Amino acid sequence: MRSIIASCISLLGLLLPAARATTWYFVTFNPPSGEYFTSLSGNMVAPTLPSAATYYLWPGLQPTDNSGVYQNVLDGRSGTWWFGSGWCCSNPSLAWGGGFNVANGATVTFSNIKQSDGSWTSTIKDPSSGGSASNNFALQGKNFNDGVFAIELDGPSWNFGPLAFSNIVITSTGTDASWCKTTPNNYNSATVYSISGVSSSVKNNIVTCNIKSLVLEKPAS
Fold first, then answer.
1. What angle do CA 116, 119, 120 make, to 5 degrees?
2. DSSP secondary structure code for residue 10 in this structure
3. Within-domain flag for 16
4. Using CA atoms, how far apart are residues 152 and 73, in angstroms rounded to an integer?
5. Is the dihedral of CA 124, 106, 56, 190 positive or negative?
6. Rounded CA gap, 94 and 91, in Å?
7. In 3-state terms, what secondary structure has residue 7?
8. What is the pTM of this model?
9. In this structure, what CATH number is given to the domain that contains residue 106?
10. How many Cβ atoms sit within 10 Å of the Cβ of residue 125?
11. Is the N-terminal amide bond of 50 cis, ω within 30° of 0?
């Protein structure tokens, strides 16, 4: 994973004390050079939040210029999960999108789609509560080639159990679907994860990758 994720220790513009280190657990998918993601959607289950702390759990996309991360984030700082979409953190500087509170155990949905003008639209929902938000982000000129499923911790440990994603659909330009079928990159081999139900198809120079289940199970050590 490129250096921007390791350096982006703050979401929503919050500056954290210099002494607090960020701990990362994530896996990534990467299409071949010159091919770029055009959508990312799926479900994520909110685990039980142990306490108010800097827990960030998210799927997202990172561009080739390493300038930031486009994310749908479960944020645990208030003591109740808050789910929102946004671009972290500058270049360009964009307002964070709308969001809503999420109960422990709720399944939320996320959908990020590249529009014809090069901007991206995020739609997030909690079917159990009716919470929803849709926002457009001016990310023209960004070519995304990292698909990320992440746990980002600034202070707390991974003490909430597995983080489960399901019914993931990722699309990219091109005709090479090998990135979907290849084992994802496991950052620093830090995460025990499981993946199942992987399939792909190619039509009209678009690769569609379907993943039935992706679970970040626990730290590797």
1. 105
2. -
3. no
4. 10
5. negative
6. 8
7. helix
8. 0.92
9. 2.60.120
10. 19
11. no
208 within some domain: yes
Residue among 46, 76, 70 at smallest CA distance from 122: 70
The string of pLDDT tens digits covering residues 165-196 is 999 999 999 999 999 988 999 999 999 999 99
Its domain, for residue 158, covers 22-219
Residue 171 token pair: 């699309």
Q: Could you tell me the pLDDT band of residue 8, with boundaries at 50, 70 and 90?
A: very low
User: Could you give the C-alpha distances from 152 to 22, 52, 54, 110, 138, in angstroms and in order?
Assistant: 7, 14, 8, 18, 25
pLDDT at 151 over 70: yes
Per the CB < 8 A criterion, the answer to whether 173 and 206 are in contact is yes
Query: Token pair for residue 187?
Result: 């950052």
Q: How many angstroms separate the CA atoms of 113 and 136, rounded?
A: 9
